[in-house]
Amino acid sequence: MVSLVQTRLMPAIVIAALIVVLPAFFPSAYYYRIGVLVFIFALAVVGLNLLMGFAGQVSLGHAGFLGIGAYSVAIGPVHFGVPSWLCLFGGAALSGVVAFIVGRPILKLKGHYLAVATLGLGLLLAIVLTNEARWTGGPDGMSVPRLVLFGWSARGATTWYWIAGATFIVAFVLALNLMDSPTGRALRAIHDSEIAARVLGIDVARKKVAIFVISAMYASVAGSFLALFNGYVTPDAAGFLRSIELVAMVVLGGMGSIVGSLVGAVVLVVLPQALTVFHDYEQVLLGLIVMVFMIFLRRGIVPSLAAAFAGRRK
Amino acid sequence: MAELLQFISSGLTVGAIYALVALGFTLIYKASDIINFAQGEFVMLGGMTTVFVAMAGVPLPLAALIAVVATTATGLALHRFAIEPARGASPVVLIMITIGASIFLRGVAQIVFDRRFHSLPPLLGADPIQLGGAAILPQSLVVLASATAIVTLLWLFVDRTLLGKAVIATAANRLAARLIGVDTRRVVALSFGISAAIGAVAGILITPIALTSYDAGTLLALKGFAAAMLGGIGSAAGAVVGGVLIGLMEAFAAGYVSSNYKDAVAFLIILVVLISIPQGLFGRAKVERV
Q1: Spatial CA neighbour of A124 closest among A47, A235, A249
Q2: Any chain B CB within 8 A of the CB of A284?
């Protein structure tokens, strides 16, 4: 039991401790805001990493699910008067259903074909959100009512810091457990060789769809949080650049490393904030940093550092 | 009838540009298995450089030439400083590097040029040619003729020259090509150079019709990538057919359905095609070895 805690849940405990301790060093509410964004993106990235890092299936359209989640908590309360928390679950369910329906035919595709199919799916969702202005406010977006739970309204970066932080820890532990389950092992087998996995009796198509649905729901919850936190949502939430950002976080942190997902989110959320000082040079530096990281830490930050550390200890 | 003709002419024009972008994707993919997401930035650089060099008082043809040379140099530099050092990295990492490069180039364009939209004067004047009731822009004919010329030249290069044969050998089997003395690194560098040049020409051709700005490359890259995949990645003929098909589909969707949903229709059809023919129109199914 002790060894189980040490090996598997240790990272979760360390991260939970960090989440609790860090605010003591925050000089202003602005830092809480950054923290919230990190947790929200890390949530989506953990889900995407389950799909990309473990099952080996690329998705260039994952922001589409982020968009479904974000617009669920916007459209539900505004147009139908449904409470936000219910819409959050409804959005996750809807994302799951969409992923389930399109998952089977799309996940049959391999490599770059899968990339372009998921890209198309994400773009289609973004285009619908942009054009159905009657429901979504069109390209200008729409405002999102605050989350109200039992008469208590969640507002402010400090409150959201704890909500997003706690949710992230739960999602993190769920992902760790999932990867140590029979499904997790089946997914890793699929990653290594689909045919070999099928020979071993794994229902490849079903497992792939299952992980696609789960990662879509992660993204949807993250999208709902993002919209509720910002109090505003635009179709950019579902756009191509958002999808690329999520993939970049996964790859930068390290494919197949759940801790890496958090690191990737930290780097790509904090970096642009830090780079705003450079005004015009922001994009140049961001592009440069992505390239340099990928060239020199090509397995991702966490796995590369872990390997270097293990090498030194020997 | 006039309507149909109108849609076909505009569809073919845009389609020719998509085909050129897709050809750039295909060429680099053939030589190196890399999907270069900075392909759209080559198109943007071609258009923007021409605009700004011409604004500085250089005659248009010379400005266009300078733009092509500058973009080709950018392509070669991308290969030398970003792709070459990451040799042997996984495909996803290489894709991320090219995406990083595309963000970088967009950022550079913002600083060197500006954030406004720009246009160029059309080569043969702006008066539309009346044909069967449809108004066809002379620039459309320029685009089509140039695209055809580029495709023909590329085909002649690959089919008739020794260097072209080296490209084919590298695409077929990199190790075997190296064994018979092909410098595969140079072939990959060459593919980046040619792709950049083709992209730049596409950018110069489309600017009089569609305007250009520092971020014009993103959507073009997506459409070009989709076109390359629709045709079956790695097939040059597929890239051209895929590009023209997407251009036509978009024009018909914009004309008959709704211009808001023209992008949607193109991607919807790509999804349907890929789901029914998983390796694209001209691609070959891959056999997986266990």
Answers
A1: A235
A2: yes
